Amino acid sequence: MTLAKFVVGLTGGIASGKTTVANLFAEFGIELVDADVIAREVVAIGSAGLTAIVEHFGDKILLADGQLDRAALRNQVFNNETQRLWLNNLLHPMIRQKMLDQVQASASQYVIMVVPLLFENHLDSLVTTTLVVDISPELQISRTMQRDGVSRQQVEHILASQMSRQQRLDKAEHIIDNQGDINLLRSQVTRLHQLFLQQAAELTIKPND
């Protein structure tokens, strides 16, 4: 599906600062479509996603209050490729459609689509351009350990499961360096905001040429 809107696919590795960068764009009035938020919504109580998961796995993947027990669900699909594929085939189309619906309903000049696994899940096909928030692996490790209270080994395991830094940079059309202070970050976002405004305006003019 080709969107008639200018969409920036924002991604980056763990603890790279995707949320901080997205919020800086939001300060300019740019609407955000967040894949992580939508992923929680499609399995909320009363959703078709949660109903299908319960029918497949049973009530054992529910918490006492009826919400999805994410830890129990992870245990069901961990090291079980068949179950993992079943879950992905259920949820990924739902998440994708909801993201597209939110983009189409947006009113800002362009839209930021925040997707941690933008390239891994081939969701870059939905966006006009891609923006990677980049930091060094060492900084990723220290920030994640501090933020999540996990060991270095756990963080290194997560990094090993994600696309490598170089692969991500090779695919990026735009890159933000988030290894400095907030003022440096803000100046980069401001520059890109002006560029995206210009490109979005050009996109809306083209159909009438």
Quick tags:
209 residues; 2 domains; Rossmann fold; Depp_CoAkinase; alpha/beta; single chain; Dephospho-CoA kinase; 5-stranded parallel beta sheet; globular
Q: How is this structure best described in words?
A:
The chain is α/β, with parallel strands linked by helices. It has two domains: 1-30 and 108-204, Rossmann fold (3-Layer(aba) Sandwich), CATH 3.40.50; 37-107, no CATH class. Helix content is 54%, strand content 11%. The protein has nine helices and five strands; from the N terminus they run βαβααααββαααβα. The protein has a five-stranded parallel β-sheet with strand order 2-3-1-4-5, sandwiched between helices. α6 crosses α7 (152-161). The protein starts with 6 loop residues before the first strand and ends with a helix. 25% of the residues are buried.
Describe the structure concisely for a colleague.
With 209 residues, the protein is α/β, with parallel strands linked by helices. The protein has helices at residues 18-26, 35-41, 48-57, 70-77, 81-105, 137-148, 152-161, 165-171, 182-205; strands at 7-12, 31-34, 111-114, 129-134, 174-177.
